[in-house]
């Protein structure tokens, strides 16, 4: 019996590994989704599962508290103690008495499936756990914006659907010299500000499909419809240029530059930070792979960097156009 | 004992949860943010006319959750960073004074006049970012508003004392509370992590000579407060034209007669806002 949950669909098939000796629990879980939605792997014992788990981790792991050979919590603790598997969401399945007595709080369990339960409850719980994991999986720890995997996935999905879109790569110039002089925590302030400028600018275009991601460091990505992107770039550049001087000490702000030591130990003068944006268009399904977009963007970036001021470069199907804010 | 009472009142003042404003501005801003075609500049201009909304916006953008506390002292920068959604949230959750007294309206008008005078003086003295002087001018009497909300009995007593003994509002505050609104401003600015330049303008506007970090800010707001009272634009709570600290001129490197030219410009700018209504 497949229980329907209104509006809850996975964006791609999910792989779930189940460790339980309980045939009742197993058959209930396997009946929740069709095989095109969820691919199940089932183990009755804990030990054999661990190797499989480590070589080919699933999207979700469900562990029964009562395994015949090893404690369920021990399996969970082994998985969660390895940094590379820590983001794998794990549900512990147990009866009420075991939940009260097992001491699961000391282990990084993500959810509890308290048995016996109903199919709607279990299905909702699993859906929610997967959705939450995909949201927090690669969020940038500083800005909480979606990170690299989400960015690539989003772009690839739009390309696969042959949607028209503009993909913008933004980064800061002279961020490193700012960091060197003022320290990391002042640098983080600038990264938070930049994220906020981009997010509020992109969100101000209501009723359009948009996306903002933070690749890491001073690299950001945003996606907008092609006809809006230039206005958005103008606004981001304008806001950034007007706000960023206030993140410097007064002396540097007044002088319009900072004096700092470069990698070779030479004292140098650096201008205030600027922002460069490279925009790649995907029109009529021109691009098929994420790699193509990032390659075009990187060559546009070089063009943008030749300009010392904040600016954006649009990839006009071969004819590049550099725009900067009038001083 | 006295210290205990002061600490208790400080706690009461900082515990403010609901800082209301006057209904007229709130209505205008609400209408503006509800329209999809409204621009950030339009909203910023309107919010810049209201000391309570300005304070709330700056408090929000400088709160640690955004990650750059104490950095933003301009309303338009705050709007660029907060976005319309957050601004709408602030506006929706702001209440209005249930009883709007004549004194309140007077104080709002006085604050705008001081804001305008601050940026006019800053421009005349060739200071950078004159809009930030305007913000400090706008917020210079915020402590009076917070005291009205949190310590209403004292507010009534201060007003009667001002009338009775013909004191300045500040002197009456000090006599009754043991501290003035300048001190309340300092507490609020620290608690809300407002930028240091705005803080110094707010808490040293009666004593620019004691400002440590941004004496120009304190001196500008000090003179602006004086000019606003001289023009009798609004009311700061008493009828005295306050004492001008001679140090203010020294800090700004101007002479008292330079105020004439500033007054000419200011007169024109007052005309621009004369149709602004708070009732």
Description:
The complex is a heterodimer of chains A (327) and B (279). By secondary structure, chain A is an alpha/beta fold. Chain A has 2 domains: 123 residues, Rossmann fold (3-Layer(aba) Sandwich); 177 residues, Alpha-Beta Plaits (2-Layer Sandwich). Chain A has 11 helices and 13 strands. In chain A, the strands form 3 sheets. A 6-stranded mixed beta sheet of chain A has the order 7-8-6-11-12-13, sandwiched between helices. Chain A is elongated, with a radius of gyration of 25 Å. The N and C termini of chain A lie far apart (66 Å). With 279 residues, chain B is an all-alpha fold. Chain B has 2 domains: 75 residues, no CATH class; 172 residues, Hypothetical protein af1432 (Orthogonal Bundle), CATH 1.10.3210. In chain B, 66% of the residues lie in helices and 0% in strands. Chain B is built from 15 helices and no strands. The relative contact order of chain B is 0.14. Chains A and B meet through helix 8 and helix 9 of A and helix 5 of B.
